[in-house]
Amino acid sequence: MTLEEYIKYKQSRTKEKIDDFVDYLYFLMDKYGFSKSSDLYTKANISKQSWSAIISKKCNPSLSTCLKIIFTLKLNNHECKYLLKKAGYTLASSSKYSLIIRYCIENEIYDLAILNEYLTKYGYTSSLID
């Protein structure tokens, strides 16, 4: 590994320490090949207006919006925790709702229809597919 590669690798590992939700989101988008914001918010079924408000920091994203982003980017558990933390959320082990979501992420089930099916099965009526 060259010095340049080492520096780049180590700097990329510290991206989780970025305090800002939007900066970390852009880092993840770049990492997972979303060069255009419109590709992500369209695929995640997030309105352009909501996306603009989040990116311009006029409002924090809802948990539902964060989950749509997480499932669209197909984040791993570690990245999911950091993104949610930056938005002010957590998936607590004491919550069945959170455990269902964590189960899907840990088992790489990124289909929101399947997640919604699981949530409905356990009595949660709100859908992530708006």
Q: Looking at the structure, what is the overall shape?
A: globular
**Could you state the order of secondary-structure elements as H and E?**
HHHHHHHH
User: Major sheet: size, sense and barrel closure?
Assistant: none
What is the total tally of β strands?
Answer: 0
Number of domains: 1
How would you state the average pLDDT, rounded? 89
Beta-strand content bin: under 5%
Helix/strand/pairing class, anyone?
mainly alpha
Q: Which spans have pLDDT < 50 for at least 5 consecutive residues?
A: none
The helix tally amounts to 8
* Radius of gyration from the alpha-carbon trace, in angstroms: 15 Å
Helix content: 55-70%
* First-residue to last-residue Cα separation: 46 Å
Q: Would you give an account of this structure?
A:
By secondary structure, the protein is an all-alpha fold. The protein has one domain (about 20-120). It is about 60% helix and about 0% strand. It has eight helices and no strands. The chain has helices at about 5-15, 20-30, 35-45, 50-55, 65-75, 75-85, 95-105, 110-120. The chain is globular, with a radius of gyration of 15 Å. The protein starts with a helix and ends in a 9-residue tail after the last helix. The mean pLDDT is about 90.
Brief description of this entry?
Helix content is 62%, strand content 0%.
